[in-house]
Amino acid sequence: MANEHLHHIYNTIVNEVDVGIHVINAKGETVIYNSKMMDIESLSKEDVLHKHFLDVFTFEEGETSTLLDVLREKRPRKNVKQTYFNHRGKEITTVNHTFPIFYEDQLIGAIEIAKDVTNLERLIRKNIKQKGNTTFTFDSIIGKSPSIREVIEHTKRATRTPSSVLIIGETGTGKELFAQSIHNGSERSSAPFISQNCAAIPDTLIESILFGTKKGAFTGALERPGLFEEASGGTLFLDEINSLSPMLQAKLLRAIQEKVIRRVGDTIDRKVDVRILSTINEDPIEAIANGRLRKDLYYRLSVVSIFIPPLRERKEDIPLLASHFIEKYNHLFQMNVDKLHPEVMQLFTEYDWPGNVRELEHVIEGAMNLVIDDTTINLAHLPVHFRNKSIPKEATSSVHSSIDVNEELTTRYQLKDYLHEAETYFIKKALARHKYHVTNTAKELGLSRQALQYRMKRLHIRAK
After folding, report:
1. Residue 350's CB: how many other CB atoms inside 10 A?
2. If residue 193 lies in a helix (H) or strand (E), which one and from where to where?
3. What is the overall mean pLDDT for the chain?
4. Which residues fall within 8 angstroms of residue 213, CB to CB, at 6 or more apart?
């Protein structure tokens, strides 16, 4: 094929893809600038090509260009949100994958692949300004680790529609924080946000709480609307949805599908306009298999599924979280603590935090109750129960290479840690036997393809 034909094919591909592509050379000058990037940044090729990046774009104080950062650091950056301005002052927000370009071990430039989220960011900011009866927004979510930033960006997209969202995460990971952020970033932000923990109320009461009652339906029953009616026009947040009985799950499914509810003891259907956000603190596939969650309700609730990583999988966020909680309790307790002792920080990073962010907050609150005339949290300030269980985790690399389920276990390893390592090893071995063919591996393991994919995502096992 002639070189001019290949050149034409490359140009066509670059300009037809639905992502922005911006390439700079080693001097920081633009050499490739595709049509989608022109749309995102409201510029023409003539405005950008063969000009230094900083001659065209500006950043707020303290912010830098991901393209120039990658050029300087010579390593890729993925899923980075960036807000900047073109030379006409237009604000642009993108989520970028940025990579250095090498030729025969010599750095010759960098490429940025960008998705436009400018309008989404503007909509979220607009809705947050007129938010209703909730506290948390996306700015309340603490963390800069790739795993949590990816979840935040994914969650922001759910603010644009009224679709149901299922938030999956362990206890203490901050599921309600994400739910409130979705509500506050949506067009429903000025309407009610009603929250109900389904595990906190017995079955005999939860039905009347959700759907309301007709006067005389049972002894002492009054004419009273339920949470669906109170949240009409807004958002209903149902925490621990898997704790509802099968009968109530069926009634909930009808309400979501048909957008009508019937009060307990009534014969009249009432229309409701409610967005449903719900949470589950276990593997939803296991919940379905064990009869704790109806499959049809799961599909209705999980139009959008959000997986919140546990704290042990984003330990690089612990310093930020710790500083945030120290500042919070300094204000509440009128104290002046400013840091953790290095030994405390080491202990925090070695600990696996089964209670996640909530446990970290409680440990810091407990420690600050014991600080008297000090500005540093030391080991002696940590709650006794935490110090007793926070044994530094032993290296577990040998578990990956050889696990004997019959070996005698000592109390140095928590059962949860051992099962996590064993499950990871077991699934990786099965995938390797089938050359990472997910369907065949799932069949061997006695799982559905969806169940195996969920476990792979939870355990951070990538298909090769």
Report:
1. 13
2. strand 193-197
3. 85
4. 221, 222, 223, 224, 226, 263, 264, 265, 266
Would you report the helix, strand and coil content of the chain in percent, each value rounded to 5?
45, 20, 35
Give pLDDT, residue 398: 39
- Taking CA atoms, 188 is separated from 121, 126, 180, 182, 260, in Å, by 16, 12, 11, 10, 19
Residue 441: predicted pLDDT: 87
Q: Residue with structure tokens 């989520």? A: 95
Strand bridging mode 224-225 / 212-213: antiparallel
Tokens of 47: 């405005």
Residue-by-residue DSSP string for 47-74: HHTTSBHHHHEE--TT---HHHHHHHH-
* Under-50 pLDDT residues of the chain: 129, 131-132, 392-413
Asked if residue 239 lies in contact with residue 198, where contact means CB atoms within 8 angstroms, the answer is yes
Handedness of CA 160, 283, 278, 184 (dihedral sign): negative
* 103, β-bridge pairs: 106
φ, ψ (nearest 5 deg) of residue 454: -65, -45
Question: Taken in order 107, 113, 118, 121, is the CA torsion positive or negative?
Answer: negative
Closest CA to 153 of 203, 249, 80: 80
Task: Please write the tens of the pLDDT for every residue from 15-26.
Answer: 899 899 999 999
Closest CA to 51 of 84, 86, 78: 86
222, two tokens: 């009054």
Rounded to whole angstroms, the Cα distance separating 280 from 336 reads 38
Assess contact for 175 and 308: CB atoms under 8 A: yes
Sign of CA dihedral 393, 394, 396, 397: positive
Query: Following CA atoms 355, 361, 363, 364 in sequence, which dihedral angle do they give, to the nearest 10 degrees?
Result: 160
Answer whether 348's CB lies under 8 Å from 322's CB: yes
User: What per-residue confidence (pLDDT) applies to 4?
Assistant: 81
Give pLDDT tens digits for 370-383.
888 788 999 888 88
pTM for this structure?
A: 0.67
Strand partners, 38: none
CB 80 within 8 A of CB 150: no
Identify the pLDDT of residue 364. 94
Helix (H, G, I), strand (E, B) or coil at 233: coil
